[in-house]
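dumping this here so i dont lose it
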């Protein structure tokens, strides 16, 4: 009892130092990761000050003139407000459609993989669906354009098929009509990432006890009942965590695929926050506005993650924290 009381009275710093000395090898292994995060994740956060300044590269971040929230006011109600709100709307719409149409696809793939009895066939199928993830955006987007491009001199396979069944008019170019951009962007994303994203759902399915399926079969249950009463409940924690993370990145659309697909004729539906930030902040030299866009995007994403996590914790008792 006296020994325990002495330990309780020890300063917290001394306890921490004892733990470090005891497991110092683990902390040495952890040190490179901590340094990486400090240099490449936390140190660049100092650049967020540009959002509150009239940034001049000649004077640097600290020497530039402080403007307060003028950049944000100019962004939402100044000369850039029309382009900004258009980019914000496009980002939200594309992200929402990607969530609605893209999120179920990896789950369906995982369910199909779990039903393939032959290991060789399943591995070959999984490899074929994983492959697009490891190809660059340029390669994937180039292949997609070859398949759907419809113009004066060339017509893709998919474009020809859509023309034959009367869904599009002959000679209509996918790249010149703004209403084709969003479906094309979402389909390319589904093709590229669905197979790779199915890994986590397939692992969740493999973690479900086989005895549950055997018990349902004994009770006369069919395949749909297995999925409804065993597979989906067993996958529920994974599904909730993944959808919270997906909601948190709703306003985060990479500019690479957008730049490869869009042009001035389809800005009305193709311009998103990342391309608006690049065009205003870097190409036009208005670094303060560009940083304000980035900070605004991050704050909205943070609020979405907090909200989704809170709702999930209250409804299902499953959450990130």
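and the seq i came up w/
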């Amino acid at each position: 009892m006296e020994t325990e009381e002495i330990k309780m009275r020890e300063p917290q710093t001394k306890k921490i130092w004892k733990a470090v000395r005891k497991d110092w090898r683990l902390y040495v292994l952890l040190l490179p990761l901590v340094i990486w995060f400090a240099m490449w994740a936390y140190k660049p956060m100092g650049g967020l000050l540009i959002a509150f300044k009239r940034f001049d590269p000649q004077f640097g971040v600290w020497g530039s003139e402080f403007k307060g929230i003028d950049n944000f006011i100019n962004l939402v109600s100044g000369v850039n407000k029309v382009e900004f709100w258009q980019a914000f709307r496009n980002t939200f719409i594309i992200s929402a459609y990607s969530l609605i149409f893209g999120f179920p696809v990896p789950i369906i793939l995982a369910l199909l993989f779990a039903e393939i009895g032959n290991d060789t066939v399943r591995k070959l199928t999984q490899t074929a669906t994983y492959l697009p993830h490891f190809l660059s955006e340029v390669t994937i987007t180039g292949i997609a354009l070859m398949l759907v491009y419809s113009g004066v001199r060339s017509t893709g396979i998919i474009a020809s098929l859509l023309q034959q069944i009367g869904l599009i008019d002959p000679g209509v170019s996918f790249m010149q009509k703004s209403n084709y951009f969003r479906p094309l962007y979402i389909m390319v994303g589904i093709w590229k990432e669905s197979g790779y994203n199915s890994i986590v759902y397939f692992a969740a399915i493999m973690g479900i006890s086989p005895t549950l399926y055997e018990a349902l079969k004994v009770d006369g249950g069919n395949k749909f009942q297995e999925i409804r009463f065993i597979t989906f409940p067993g996958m529920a924690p994974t599904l909730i965590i993944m959808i919270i993370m997906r909601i948190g990145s709703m306003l985060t659309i990479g500019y690479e695929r957008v730049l490869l697909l869009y042009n001035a004729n389809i800005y009305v539906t193709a311009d998103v926050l990342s391309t608006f930030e690049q065009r205003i902040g870097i190409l036009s030299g208005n670094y303060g506005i560009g940083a304000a866009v980035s900070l605004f995007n991050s704050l909205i994403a943070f609020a979405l993650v907090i909200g989704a996590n809170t709702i999930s914790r209250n409804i299902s008792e499953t959450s990130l924290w």
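Residues 287-316 form the longest helix (30 residues).
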